[in-house]
Amino acid sequence: EPEVTQTPSHQVTQMGQEVILRCVPISNHLYFYWYRQILGQKVEFLVSFYNNEISEKSEIFDDQFSVERPDGSNFTLKIRSTKLEDSAMYFCASINSGNSYNEQFFGPGTRLTVL
Amino acid sequence: SQKIEQNSEALNIQEGKTATLTCNYTNYSPAYLQWYRQDPGRGPVFLLLIRENEKEKRKERLKVTFDTTLKQSLFHITASQPADSATYLCALDRGSTLGRLYFGRGTQLTVWP
């Protein structure tokens, strides 16, 4: 069964450093998302991406964040200058059409720890 | 902004009983409401979706109801098993074509033998 994959599974970085989190969505999917979950908190939407551009972003997704689909398979989230409060699980998700009553397929997540 | 509340942080029940989890929301009514399962350190896994014009949806031992008047969804697991132990997330979808989900904090279900 196809699945969303994410690398790395765990990323440790120093405050102020740049990190890139990588995702490979399911191959025939067209809509891509990043969510984050701070330990013990709810899953929060960051950004949606379609047709090589951002469709929607939340207030969390500020100038320090960017997303890119550099090729036909990868979908990346970059944090330019990490802060302590960026420590969280980051989940990539995808759906295969703009019909929102499709389930979202989530990856296993990347645990980001900012020291 | 949309606010989603799930009835309790934790629910403990005995194997074989029915688990009932509650999701309440405020402000606008979602077009769709989804339920996900999340195991520790893992991503959410889709379970069921119910549309605003549907009252009930079933899938095997799972049942979801949706009451737009009460702004509430109930999620039932019948004949619960220890393997059902996980955190269950309620997620609202406003029905845009972009599928952004608004999640509740989840209810941690423990089924003991």
Explain this structure.
The complex is a heterodimer of chains A (115) and B (113). Helices cover 0% and strands 50% of the residues of chain A. The mean pLDDT of chain A is 93. Chain A is mostly beta strands and 115 residues long. Chain A is globular, with a radius of gyration of 13 Å. In chain A, the strands form two sheets. In chain A, strands 2, 4, 5, 6, 9, 10 and 11 form a seven-stranded mixed sheet that branches. In chain A, strands 1-3-8-7 form a four-stranded antiparallel sheet, with no helix packed on it. Chain A has no helices and eleven strands. Chain A has strands spanning 5-7, 10-13, 19-24, 31-37, 43-50, 53-57, 65-68, 75-79, 88-95, 105-106, 110-114. Chain B has 113 residues and is mainly β. Chain B is built from no helices and eleven strands. Chain B has strands spanning 4-6, 10-14, 19-25, 32-38, 45-51, 56-59, 62-67, 72-77, 86-93, 101-103, 107-112. In chain B, the strands form two sheets. In chain B, strands 2, 4, 5, 9, 10 and 11 form a six-stranded mixed sheet that branches. In chain B, strands 1-3-8-7-6 form a five-stranded antiparallel sheet, with no helix packed on it. In chain B, 35% of the residues are buried. Chains A and B meet through strand 4, strand 5, strand 9 and strand 10 of A and strand 4, strand 5, strand 9 and strand 10 of B.
